[in-house]
Amino acid sequence: MRKFVYKIGENFEGKEAKAFLRHMGYSADIIKELKKGRLLVNGSEAYTVRKLHAADVLETIFPDEVSDIEPNINPCIKLIYSDKDIAVLYKPPYVPTHQSLGHYRDTLANHFAALFPDTRFRTATRLDKNTSGLCLTALNKLSSAIVCAHKPKKLYYAAVKGDIPFSGTINAPIEREREGDIKRIVTPEGKPSVTHYKTVRKKGEYRLLEVELETGRTHQIRVHMAYIGFPLLGDELYGGETELISRQALHCGKIEFFHPITKEKMSFEQPVPEDMEKIFQN
């Protein structure tokens, strides 16, 4: 169970509890769920229309949740950080984030279920199966709502081949190639998509790029780099060469966000993994 306790200030004198909760980042759906027994004012059960007074103590209660995901530890996944509200994990390549056909026990979700058995798996960030890097998860419904409303900032590393301009911005809309197909393409009918990159390392004809996203479309980095003629190494779906690496050379190496409850600025980094690092070794 997770309980949040707030002391009401004078600026909420005479206002309803739901107004205060909205101010604290509670979504409309969560406020609706705070039924009898899950919202207390001065220790007594209350409704969200309850008028508040300065110095009142308001509490919200989030009971433990039952996960229907089979727990299964993956020793290659690392728990980087956790507290009562969030957890940051490192997902290696070749590990799916969520369960899907053929992947019922080998996902990040299975590992999470083993670490946090009384918590639903909620990702605030998500990575493709063959993309490595940091994943932010929320340990309760409130933290999830707040984190997702204020999108974390992610920094990616990508490896390409060729004399790509040192830095640049790609502003090109993205959509599915065909209905129901996983592959995406740049098309005028697509959703607005903006990617920024700069070169941080060179070795011969290979370049390591630092990439930031303004938008978060599926496969955005992979699609945009292929669109400008520099598909990610190892990315067979979008035309990348596979001699040096057997998966798309893409890694989420840094994530920054404000903690959903404490509001503290949080920052985590994870170095480029070995299979990408080998491309640039002498």
Describe this structure in words.
By secondary structure, the protein is α+β, with helices and mostly antiparallel strands. Helices cover 15% and strands 32% of the residues. The longest helix is centred in the middle third of the chain and has 9 residues.
Topology summary:
Blueprint (H helix, E strand, L loop, with lengths): L1 E6 L9 H7 L4 H6 L5 E3 L2 E2 L11 E6 L15 E5 L3 E6 L16 H8 L6 E2 L8 E7 L2 H9 L3 E9 L5 E5 L2 E3 L7 E3 L7 E10 L2 E8 L6 H8 L22 E9 L6 E5 L4 H4 L5
Parallel strand pairs: 8-15
Antiparallel strand pairs: 1-4, 2-3, 2-4, 5-6, 6-8, 7-8, 9-14, 9-15, 10-13, 11-12, 13-14, 15-16
Keywords:
282 residues; alpha+beta; four-stranded antiparallel sheet; 16 strands; elongated
Radius of gyration: 22 Å
Estimate the helix proportion, in percent: 10-25%
What's the number of extended β-strand segments? 16
- Give the end-to-end Cα distance, rounded to a whole number of Å: 52 Å
In short:
This protein has 282 residues and is of the alpha+beta class.
